Amino acid sequence: MSERTRAEIADEPSWRASDFLLRWETILFGLLILVVIGDTFLSPYFLDIDNLSDATANFSEKAIIALGMALLILVREIDLSVAAIIALCSLAMGLAAQAGAGTVPLVLIGLVVGAICGAFNGFLVARIGLPSIVVTIGTMSLFRGIAQVVLGDQAISEYPEGFETLGQDYFIKHPPLHYSFSLFLIFAVLFALVLHRTALGRKLYAMGANPVAARFSGIPVERIKFGLFVLTGLLSGIAAVLLTGRVGSTRPNIALGWELEVVTMVILGGVSIAGGSGTIPGVVIAVFVLGLVTFGLSLINVPGIVISVILGFLLIGAITLPIVGRRIVASLQSQR
Amino acid sequence: MDRRSDRLGGDRRGETRVNFLLRHRELALAMIIAAMIGAIGIYAPAFVSRANIATVLDDTSILFMLVLAQMIVILTRGIDLSVAANLALSGMISASLAQHSPDLPVIAYIATGVAVGLALGLFNGALVAGVGIPPIVVTLGTLAIFRGLIVVYGGGNQVNAPQMGETFQSFPKMTWLGLETVFWIAAALALAIALFLNFTRTGRNFYALGGNPLAARYCGINISKQFLLAYVISGAVSGLCGYLWVARYGVAYSEIASGYELTVIAACVIGGVSIAGGVGTVAGALLGALFLGVIVNALPVMQVTPFWQMAISGAVILAAVIVNARVERRSGRLILPEARRSAGAAK
B96, B155 in Cβ contact below 8 A? Predict the structure, then answer.
């Protein structure tokens, strides 16, 4: 992967089939095709446009956050508080709905609270210079803790009808496209364009590859990191709007454990935890792989926790096999 | 430790009292905990009774052990997110052994827990040290795998107290000198790890490795072996805690200690273990765990709903990381006397 990045920096590298075939995105895409074929054999209900459309609703909210998380991990940061931000946004919207707020104010409240939470993380990481993994473990407890203090063991479920439509209804009826999935597709294109076609995108790679060198070459590293945390908070706010609308209630344990699923999407998508490499198309394919494996297995009634074992092996296996394979190839070549 | 003592030998005279406390964060943390216990005691005198203090120590014992093991991993710049899942799986297997053959000596159940935990830790370690996958990725994956395996193994059933048998359950709850066995096990483990980290070459290597992996490699330290060892220790301790947890609380199912890995890491951070690696002491880690243990046990006494627990520990983690960052920034890089003098003049 790092060789690919180096090749991109050089002037127009010559195209080689092996480069293309060994790209992480190509491998992932092959995996995706295998998953689709496997699922089709597993269940006759898999290749059904309405079923598939409902399946997208189950991963689109996480996938939207994964786009922001991908940029954070690309610049060597991480945000483990995203699920807790959802809980806090959902709480704020629930309280506003109880006070009689309509759909539009509710959505705005969700987005603003998400952005504020993100700004809080960004302030601690980018301004004060604390390690993001510790900061966001702390804010994860803090944000969800606040939701827990206010809600106790209660739930809020008095939402206006228009608000619930956002999480449940279709953006386009034929083919059936959920609002959440449509938003994910639009964001994915936007993120891909910004990351792969603009100067800002190149700056993110520079920051991830070498933050100190990036700072010395005039990239406002701290400001961009702050912005990325706000962005991820905002995306979590959007996810909170969609999820709260979809399930129609706010509980303190809403979206519990999602941070790990989101990080899994990003890492399987080929974004290196060491920073500086990874692509949006990779993350998008990983989202589909994870989403469709989950959907296919749940069609044949595999329990959720067993699916998580399979996803865990998928994550580790997908990362281990190319490394081991490359080592075997290298040792074979050196023997020659 | 050695880095800090170097600094102590250096410019000790000019420092203020605040700086002194910031440097000796174990002392500062101990004072904060003492003040906290004192304040709670004024509000609710029952809290500072001998019996209650013993309860707090017993309840925190498992956290003490997990924090020490996690510290070793964090010293190597790693992280082990799978400890709680490992604990739950080892505990489950140990409990089901007790369910099927309840008349074995208790050491058999303990050994089962430790062995299972060790094997799971070995799996983590092989992936980190052998394949070279970042620890956070490996343990994120194994966290899901271990938890799921509990359901696969137990068929989704839980093992309840009556099924475990008396031998299995009574051991951690036997009291010696007013404290339960689980506390004495934690104390013995803490002593062993303190001796290991401070007085053996392998133990010191963890600090060298975390401080500067490249330099450690040039010094001839077998980096892979150290990584592997860190995850094996973490796994074995989690397995031990798995038995203790299940035996003490009398139930084994897939969700026990869910999310506890974050409490463990939080205690490390509060105790001054640097997530950047190479910095952390046994005393600090234990105090970090004690801090959280006191809070958890104090809330009901203070008649605060347990719903506050999460928010408070979040705020404490943030406060601790801010304070620790200040201390780390203070760490002087000026080792030559001339440089120190000119820096002093510049002030």
Answer: no
Residue pLDDT, tens place only, A173-207: 777 888 899 999 999 999 999 999 999 999 999 99
Mutate to test the interface with B, among A137, A144, A253, A326 (most CBs of B within 10 A): A137
Beta bridge partners of A58: none
* CB contact at 8 A, B226 and B205: yes
**ipTM surpassing 0.90:** no
Q: Does the pLDDT of residue B298 top 80, yes or no?
A: yes
| Reported confidence tier of residue A260, pLDDT bands at 50, 70, 90 | confident
Cα(A247)–Cα(B80) distance, integer angstroms: 33
Interhelix angle A161-168/A179-197, rounded to 10 degrees, is: 60
What phi and psi values does residue B180 have, to the nearest 5 degrees?
-75, 160
Give the long-range contacts of residues B199-202, CB within 8 A, separation 24 or more: B202/B226, B202/B229
A172 touches chain B (CB under 8 A): no
Q: Chain B residues within 8 A (CB-CB) of chain A?
A: 79, 127, 131-134, 136-138, 140-145, 147-152, 156, 254, 259, 262, 265-266, 269, 275-276, 305, 307-315, 317-318, 321-322, 325
User: If you count them, how many residues does chain A have?
Assistant: 336
Sequence-separated (6 or more) residues with CB below 8 Å from residue A282: A24, A25, A28, A269, A270, A271
DSSP annotation string for A212-270: HHHHHTT--HHHHHHHHHHHHHHHHHHHHHHHHHHH--B-TTTTTTHHHHHHHHHHHTT
Q: Yes or no: say if B243 and B110 are a contact pair by the CB < 8 Å rule.
A: yes
Copy the structure tokens of residue A258. Answer: 């999602």
For B80-138, the DSSP string reads: -TTHHHHHHHHHHHHHHHHHH-TTS-HHHHHHHHHHHHHHHHHHHHIIIIII---HHHH
Interface test with chain B among A76, A91, A154, A309, by most B beta carbons within 10 Å: A309
The enclosing H or E element of B252 equals: strand B251-252
Give the pLDDT band (50/70/90) at residue B1: very low
- Distance, CA of B25 to CA of A121 (rounded, Å): 25
A328 touches chain B (CB under 8 A): no
